[in-house]
Amino acid sequence: MTDISTTARPKTQGPEARGAEAQGQFLVAALYHFVSFPRFADFREPLQAVCDANGVKGTLLVAHEGINGTIAGSDDGIAAVLAYLRGQPELTRLEHKESRASAMPFLRMKVRLKKEIVTMGVEDIDPNKVVGTYVEPKDWNALISDPDTLVIDTRNDYETAIGLFRGAVDPKTKTFREFPDWVRNNTGLHNKPKIAMYCTGGIRCEKATAFMKEQGFEEVYHLKGGILKYLEEIPETQSLWDGACFVFDERVSVTHGLAEGEHTLCHACRQPLTAEDLLSPLHEEGVSCIHCHETRTDEDRERYRERQKQIALAKKRGERHLGS
């Protein structure tokens, strides 16, 4: 048994909108919606076309259980894609979360067909049938400060490495597929009457609560809108969040107020790096870092060096290499 250790706003036109634009010219929309979506395969090409026509980039996953992803573009482009999505009878209640980026955080637009919109690998887990109790960000601090509550981070180890809620249990999973076995192997999870779970945008913890309910846990809660919504709404002076939140785009991380974080990404292993990590003698841009230096061969590093050379040449030409 593993040890358990703690470790749409509306579009505006006034000063608020101008302030948002000052933070970054690109609007980033994170979205997901669990819904029965049997026609998902036929939806891929039309959705791709709408995104391309509006200059929107990112990744959207569609499956029989709904849609999930993050996209970025101009304010008008994102508004057009969201309007198209909400125009579908299955997606009228789709919610999204917004942030800004100073540079386009994606290289291309990909609409992908999947078996699950977030991969847990457990059959018949449906948040539309059974799910935990949603907790608004304003009520989250009180819940996780309750001594009767066990707080669990449902993200992966490279995400939790740069930020956690105070006192949260870190399962140290490498993928979300490992989460069900982690729960089954930890009988100590039953020691407290309340379980509170969270993730980046809400999708993993929502599915995790459905799984926990199926496993017999009764009082199960999850943070509505995830860390992103919490960081957007809760002032830093009142926050119980420590560190930065990993995001799955070229910004790498965001902090309170959804400001862009200071992390960069190792393009050899995709781990987030701090300024201190970059000073390590094991760090070589695009080739290795403190997390992966010992696990890569000399042949790997030579291949990465060649890729990094091509990235640098593309940058000199004013282009962006697809491998960057």
UniProtKB/TrEMBL annotation:
The keyword Membrane does not apply. It catalyses: uridine(34) in tRNA + AH2 + O2 = 5-hydroxyuridine(34) in tRNA + A + H2O. Residues 314-324 have a biased composition (Basic residues). Residues 301-324 are annotated as: Disordered. Keywords: Oxidoreductase, tRNA processing. It holds the Pfam family Rhodanese. It comes from the Bacteria. Residues 145-239 form the Rhodanese domain. Its EC number is 1.14.-.-. It is an enzyme of class 1 (oxidoreductase). Catalyzes oxygen-dependent 5-hydroxyuridine (ho5U) modification at position 34 in tRNAs. Belongs to the TrhO family. This is tRNA uridine(34) hydroxylase. It comes from Sinorhizobium chiapasense.
